[in-house]
Amino acid sequence: MFLIVALITLFLLLCLGLGWWMLPERRRVTVSAPRRRWRLPRCVRRHGVLAVVAALVLVVPPLLVVSLRQNVELKPFRSTDLAESHSMIAELLRGERLVPPPPPPPEVFTNAEMRRFHPEVISADRRWDKVDGALRQRVLAIYRVMKQQYGVEMVLVEGFRDAERQKKLMGKGASLAGAWRSCHQYGLAVDSAPLKDGMLQWDMEDPWTRRAYFLYGELAKEAGLAWGGDWTNLKDYVHVESRDRCLAARRARQARLDAQGGS
């Protein structure tokens, strides 16, 4: 800030000095002085004051804007901005009520690769009606944009998760959250994976898969959801959740437990 003000002050002093030097009275006093090798253009000498004023008008306002507005930030889209946003996600959420797509063939979840590397997915709950309605609409909007704009088909891997299953997943290291600490227990989180050639894709070293998951994460954040790919302790690229509503649900449950304990 100080540097900007100093530069503006220096520029003003230079402009004023130049204007004074080019005044007609100044030229009459120095008419007998030796001719300089370098001279300003005739139009500038003739209209010196006007040139100085024009330079000030063109240069000073941008410098003032830069000095007074140090950081220019674009307001990100949040879930509370759905009425104003013109993104495809928001347009879909303001339009028709989205219906879950038909589930993929059962072998997508029971093939040899799944049994070997992701056996926990086989028994996961994939019923859309167990997912919170508002979250369901956001995720379905993401699915449609992924399909229509990027040609990527997304599949629901898991929605609602009971407390017992959450304990087991935590014990296996598949989750860091204990029972009733995960948003899945409240129907406020879902796991999704891209489908390619009839197979769910998990390998983040594969460029196509990595691009698909990061597109999924960006659209999730555009829809006001939290994406597990942004986590630091455990990257969960398949996971999105309604974080604020989940925190509220956890607090409400704890308040009920405290009330029951105190009665």
TrEMBL record:
Domain (Peptidase M15C) ranges: 181-241
Keyword Membrane listed: yes
GO MF assignments: peptidase activity
Keyword Transmembrane among UniProt keywords: yes
Keywords for the protein's UniProt record, in alphabetical order: Membrane, Transmembrane, Transmembrane helix
Top-level lineage group: Bacteria
Transmembrane segments: 6-23, 44-68
Gene3D superfamilies in alphabetical order: 3.30.1380.10
Protein's recorded name: M15 family metallopeptidase
